[in-house]
Fold this protein.
Amino acid sequence: MANGSNSRAAVAAAWAVHLYTAATAVVALLALQAFIDGDPRKGFLWLWAAVAIDSTDGALARWVRVKERTPRFDGTLLDNLADYLTFVFVPAWVVSLDAVVPSGWGLPLGVGMLLASAYGFSHKDAKTSDHFFRGFPSYWNIVAFYLYTLGMMPTVNGVIVGGLVVLVFAPVGFVYPSRTPTLRGVTLVGGTIWAVAMLVAAWEFDGGPSAVARWSMIFPAYYVGVSVVLDRKRRKAIQSSLSP
């Protein structure tokens, strides 16, 4: 496919990838409907599907060369719109219900998530040239899942959400799992295992704390640790290059 011409089949494949990305918005609607129906298990399974799509559509887009074959269509904008719905809006709505945060905190925290992530998604330097996210990359769907499944106190959950809202604005780098070169193989393997664990935890979710979800926190801890270390090295390298 990568060596093919702009034949009808190649263009159709490019549009199929765009449709695949757009399907994330449908998944967001289905997840929201599940939460409205009082079925968080189904809601989290739909949000897991959104993560699966988001983790694969970029590679597919590069493989079929969507920029070349659909030059008048902005796939990056489509991806951001779909991600905002699934990664931000639906989780913000879930948090606003006050089910896992103290009473009265939900709406302010949900508003904070929406506004902070609107800034994060719109910032021109949201992704650096060396493939880091600038600030917390709005993985609110994952955060919401852990708020439900780790069994922490509502006050702790609320403080975590508030802290991450602030961290969206912080000029710190977070690893882009599929594109940051250093330890990319380890990160992708670990991320795949983590994704399977998340699927199992979501499938078994019964409203209470999940042992699988707790064990799966090993990968987020690794992700944050690697991000801190690599961002520090990256900053030192930049400072060294600017020194006379």
The CA atoms of residues 16 and 61 lie 10 Å apart. The radius of gyration is 19 Å. The mean pLDDT is 89.
